[in-house]
Amino acid sequence: MKLITFVHLGKTMVGAITDRYIYPLPYSSMNELILSGSNIEKLVAMAGNPIAIQESKILAPIPHPRQDIICLGINFLEHAVESARYKKEAFGGDRPYAVYFSKRVNECLPDKGVLPDYKDIVDSLDYECELAVVIGKDAKNVTKEKAFDYVFGYTIMNDISARNLQTIHKQWYFGKSLDGFAPMGPCIVTEDEFSRPPILTVKSFVNGELRQNSTTDLLIFDIPHVIAELSQGMTLKAGTIIAMGTPAGVGMGFRPPKFLKKGDVVECVIENIGTLTTYIN
User: What is the reported pTM?
Assistant: First the structure.
């Protein structure tokens, strides 16, 4: 099932979406739907009368996350290589532990959203296409074998990054947390639609040029590892979003770098989920 948040006749709603219609569900937000614990059969039974897609405005599936988004850094080997090269650091090829950081989000930018202009403080704007995992119920001390039982579904996130802010502050939080730096969508696809683990192509395009092209089976630390490891020390609350890292091909990885500029169009494409488009102002 593909789930969205949308506005219809001035009211924000959630619903299931098909190629032509949205079927509203009786929840005020996606977070409320997730917290309800409703299974697919119940959601199908509760679906209301169809609304034409063109009569609605689609928002990010979770416009306001309950907590900061948990992100994995350098979780594809080739991205680790290009990241080290950009920072003029040596990379020995060994990644024994996952790198975690958080991304503060005021409001997630929807599909076809316009990124705010930060030309006064950002001179190296970058994109990162990532598979995002949405946790469906509180997870504490979860084993790898049971990890997927805690996954509600998957969506796409573009981990927009200000490389100059990352560099001067020597950490990632500020440079990845400016307003608008979390485009997400276009929908959440429920976990039952995928194999375990989901093996999906991950691609990004800038102005139609293919930049990133990889698959989720090349993750250094996979979804069960991440859920099991994090839940040993913290409770992953229902609605938690985990961005699994980006493959090689980001702007800073090119020689010279190909950072984003005004007028660019970024498309993040993940197999069986869709396309997340962001316009650069």
Answer: 0.95
